[in-house]
Design a protein that fits this description.
By secondary structure, this protein is α/β, with parallel strands linked by helices. The chain contains 3 helices and 8 strands; from the N terminus they run αββββββββαα. The chain has one domain: Sandwich (Immunoglobulin-like). The longest helix has 14 residues. The protein starts with a helix and ends with a helix. It binds copper (II) ion.
Length: 143
């Protein structure tokens, strides 16, 4: 009983109903190749996303963040936690594997900056040589 009470307190200390998500950085995802999994995530302001270096050689860098939100850049092979502070669309890539379209999208609340996000997604897609269209598929899930 004591244990249960303690873990409840821990959950609430992070903010009322704040959710925690994990995005794995993988060498071979479900559709093959290097991916973030899940590559598309729908969350709310105050939630936290932790990027987990399941396989080696990956990290994460933001390409688009909502207005007012901080850009982010993690270190290779290190776990990285991101608190989602602003509503909008976050677009990110794994810098060494951009050509393979190792990229992802997080939608937080309403997609306030969808135009910017779409422009950047088009740029990223243009430069990829493998898994073309993957980031477009994630963008299609933004509503
Ligand atoms: Cu990578």
């Amino acid at each position: 009983m004591k244990k249960l009470l303690f873990s409840t307190l821990l959950i609430f200390s992070g903010g009322l109903f704040a959710a925690e998500y994990e995005v794995k950085m993988l060498d071979n995802g479900k559709d093959g190749g290097m991916v973030f999994e899940p590559g598309f995530l729908k969350a709310e302001v105050g939630d936290t996303v932790t990027f987990v270096p399941t396989h080696k050689g990956h990290w994460v860098q933001s390409k688009v963040v909502p207005e007012g939100a901080e850009k982010f850049l993690s270190k290779e092979d290190e776990k990285f936690s991101l608190t989602l502070t602003h509503e909008g669309v976050y677009v990110y890539v794994c810098p060494p594997h951009r050509m393979m379209n190792m990229s992802g999208i997080i939608q937080v609340g309403q997609p306030t900056n969808l135009d910017n996000a779409t422009k950047e997604v088009e740029k990223i897609e243009k430069r990829t040589t493998e898994h073309k269209g993957r980031l477009f598929e994630y963008l299609d899930q933004v509503k």
